[in-house]
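Session log. Operator J.P. requested a structure for one protein chain; no other inputs attached. Running the standard single-chain path with token output.
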Amino acid sequence: MLSENVAKGKQEKHEEEVLFAEFSEWCDNTSTDKQRSIDSGKRQIEQLTADIKKARSDAKVLVEEIGALNGQINGWGEDKTSAQAQRASERKDFNAVRTDYSESIDAIGRAISVLKAKSADTKQSALIQSNLSTFPSSA
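Structure written below.
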């Protein structure tokens, strides 16, 4: 009976050693995996931190560029306003000159009709008619 107990104790000890070896191997593997995960996480944190710094730097540069572009847009708006005011003034001047020229041409046309209606030979009408031949008919 004692030898059976010894044999049973040796069997249980062997089983326990096998289980402990498996558990020890599992612990080592798990520890290695966790350490790799931690190292990978640290590298990822470093990379993401660098990405954040770069993004902040890029954002700062872009804010400055946006400010410069907004300044240009405002300048162009002022240029547009002044150009529109100048064009309005020039259009007013053009319309006044065109009206004056139209009225003058109309008056000359009426004067020619009146002079042609008078068939009397006068020095002045002869002079006007001789000058009329030098003007183009489109005028």
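Operator note: Helices lie at 2-117, 123-132.
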